């Protein structure tokens, strides 16, 4: 009987965490650039705060790229979004730009890629000469370089629990 209660508790915890995860609309992203904040290279290691990805902060990517002086890329991040429309699907983005032998990282929030609109795909196609990396992700803090390591560690921690079933 004691094992049954323990298994029920574990199942309830797992279900709660799954449902809590499903309830999230947009992720929390690192919003920074390496020119104004060197900690942006490894934001998780420097315990930088994430920001909720909202229509209101999508424009920050364009501003960050303009600050870097890479004006030819700024227009790619010029998105007109109704700031009050929270149904717009958004994701975290990480972009690595190499211009004049300087490598810069910009992390932020953008419209989620769709068939007819994918900022990273368009940038890679049109500006592969200066953009060495551009990717989207949809988990809290996922636009940090160490996110995959954290996810893998979590999987290995959960394996013994799942094996018990």
From TrEMBL:
Annotated localization: Membrane
Keywords, sorted A to Z: Glycoprotein, GPI-anchor, Lipoprotein, Membrane, Signal, Transmembrane, Transmembrane helix
Provide the Gene Ontology terms for cellular component. side of membrane
- One short Pfam family name for this protein? QVR
Keyword Zinc belongs to the record: no
Bilayer topology reads: Lipid-anchor; GPI-anchor
Q: So which residues are the signal peptide here? A: 1-25
Q: Name a single GO biological process.
A: sleep
What name does UniProt use for this protein?
Answer: Protein sleepless
């Amino acid at each position: 009987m004691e094992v049954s209660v323990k298994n029920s508790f574990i199942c309830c915890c797992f279900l709660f965490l799954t449902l809590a995860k499903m309830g999230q609309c947009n992720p929390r992203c690192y919003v920074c650039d390496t020119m104004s904040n060197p900690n942006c290279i490894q934001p998780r290691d420097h315990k930088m705060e994430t920001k909720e990805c909202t229509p209101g902060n999508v424009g920050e990517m364009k501003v960050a790229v303009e600050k870097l002086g890479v004006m030819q890329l700024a227009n790619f991040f010029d998105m007109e979004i109704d700031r009050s429309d929270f149904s717009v699907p958004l994701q975290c983005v990480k972009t690595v730009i190499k211009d004049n032998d300087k490598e810069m990282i910009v992390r932020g929030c953008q419209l989620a890629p769709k068939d007819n609109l994918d900022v990273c795909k368009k940038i890679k196609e049109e500006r592969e000469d200066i953009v060495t990396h551009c990717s989207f992700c949809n988990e809290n803090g996922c636009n940090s370089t160490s996110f995959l390591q954290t996810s893998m560690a979590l999987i290995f921690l959960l394996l013994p629990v799942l094996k018990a079933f």
